[in-house]
Amino acid sequence: MEMRIIRTRHIVLVLIIVAVLAGAWYALTREKATLPESALYGPKPTLVAPVRTLLPTINVAKAVGWAKGEAPTAAAGLAVNGFASGLAHPRWLTTLPNGDVLVAEANSPPREVSGVKGFVMGILMKRAGATVPSANRITLLRDGDGDGVAETRSVLLTGLNSPTGMALAGDHLYVANTDSVVRYPFKPGETKITAKAEKIATLPGGGNHWARNLIANEDGSKLYVTVGSASNVAENGIEAEKGRAAIWEIDARTGDNRIYAYGLRNPNGLAWEPSTRTLWTTVNERDMLGSDLVPDYLTSVQFGGFYGWPWYYWGGYVDKRGPEATEDLQEYVVRPDYALGPHTAALGLAFADRAKLGPRFAEGAFIALHGSWNRKPLAGYKVIFVPFVKGAPAGMPIDLLTGFLDEDENARGRPAGVAIDRTGALLVADDVGNRIWRVSARTAAPGPGKP
């Protein structure tokens, strides 16, 4: 009898292993997109039925960096040159009134690796170039002679905790760490901050999504901060997501805060649309529903708006994988304004009101698509321009900067943060290439710069 039980257990174990291997084989070789990436762009993307596999679809572009002399390819009429190189995972950018450029050199805090899932994710992140230690600093770059290349740099701040967003408001520089918002006395022109940080607000840290972007309103009285979810679809319980998958509004003077909008799985870019002064954001949507779902998106941010995560996506489609909802919120889900393709990892966002890249790029939004891991074929890995008319997206996106993938689909670089410099050129932080690219109009091309 005992031998029979042992044999039965062995058979069950073998069957489980076979099922896991079969699921892995399907996920790694069979599941792939049925639609072109372009079908999931715009205000009305084509949404197919979810595809559930035992293991997620895995397709990671290996990080190889840029060979000497290589550079991305700019759209017709534009030129690209290297603004700065030799940086340590440059993630986010902000420009100051005097023309100086601040770059947050940062990566995820050390992660707790547990279980098979954690082990596999660690391997994938290493392949993607996302496991380098965080420099935890902000560097100041200065192009004093105006040739489009930063000839001087200085370490403005150190001792931060995976910083991303930066904002100058009044006589203070605000910085969003992964677990707090802090500020320092600062005036443009200064090249080093020695004052101690003053904490304004504590943010929830840990979990999957570590980056916290930050933007100030026009008079500097309010700050808006992105806080991504701790998981894919709240699989660790909704309590672990308290204060997350949201944009916070923080009083810059007192630190008092509230949730401004929620149900945003992983918001990143923040920018004010110039004609309406409305806040817009880019959002990374959920994974593991197949290569065609769910599209990341660009959207205006409604105060009190609920954007669906984790129970719904794209205005009310049901996702049954997360915890059971305590109330029916489907009819209240805000539909995003503009889809940005499936798994493209939309990050940096900048509007074109201060750009000088020609009439084709005069009104709209520049968006950095960091690139996919959960899709076959790969998606993103480029900077796009979304045209706007009267404060709203109008038309399909234009590829502004491409070539981050080589012919073998290795990642030379991955675009992250974007910003407009004082000349009207677009700066692009490349956190795998460890440099900043500068895109300008050919009629006003900069002097020779080293990629």
How would you describe this structure to a colleague?
The chain is built from 2 helices and 29 strands. With 451 residues, the chain is mainly beta. It has one domain: Neuraminidase. The strands form 7 sheets. Strands 2, 22, 23, 24, 25 and 26 form a 6-stranded antiparallel β-sheet that branches. Strands 1-21-18-17-16 form a 5-stranded antiparallel β-sheet, with no helix packed on it.
- In the CATH scheme, the class would be Mainly Beta
CATH topology term = Neuraminidase
Indicate the structural class: mainly beta
**Content of β-strand:** 25-35%
pLDDT below 50 for ≥5 consecutive residues: which ranges? 14-27, 444-451
In this structure, how is the largest beta sheet organized? Answer: 6 strands, antiparallel
What is the name of the CATH architecture?
6 Propeller
Give average pLDDT, whole number.
91
- Into which percent range does the helicity of residues fall? under 10%
Tally the helices.
2
Q: Give the CA-based shape.
A: globular
Q: Kindly, what is the distance between the CA atoms of the first and last residues, rounded to a whole number of angstroms?
A: 72 Å
Compute the number of strand runs.
Answer: 29
Integer count of domains: 1
